[in-house]
Design goal:
116 residues; mainly beta; 3-stranded antiparallel beta sheet; globular
């Protein structure tokens, strides 16, 4: 996920669709595989907006302050219904809300413009 992008469509708190940004990638394949193995991971149990713009503390392991970094984090899986809880900390992201045929951008990090 650190290098591979994905677009997820979430409706009613459940992931409905996953597609890669650009060519198919390892992150998208792994996430699809996880949802195929256990559909309970499709439910988003946690959604948090990180507003800390500081650089240098983002670590590539299980580290709680990653949730505070500028971006959005999604929590998938809720024990005892799933084996573990997975937090996806997304630092290059845009969040939209749809109502009928209208779409409104709610949140965007500056780094997203460099990714898409």
């Amino acid at each position: 996920m650190a290098t591979d992008g994905a677009v997820l469509r979430v409706q009613g708190g459940v992931i409905q669709d996953i597609r890669p940004v650009g060519p198919d990638n390892a992150f998208v394949r792994a996430l699809r595989g996880m949802l195929d193995d256990d559909p309970n991971y499709a439910k988003v149990h946690e959604l948090g907006f990180g507003l800390n713009p500081c650089e240098g503390f983002f670590l590539y392991d299980n580290f709680l302050p990653n949730e505070m970094k500028l971006g959005v984090h999604f929590g998938l899986g809720l024990t005892p219904f799933t084996e573990f809880h997975l937090d996806l900390a997304c630092t290059s992201i845009a969040v939209y809300a749809e109502s009928g045929n209208q779409q409104k951008e709610l949140f965007r990090t500056g780094a997203l413009a460099r990714v898409i």
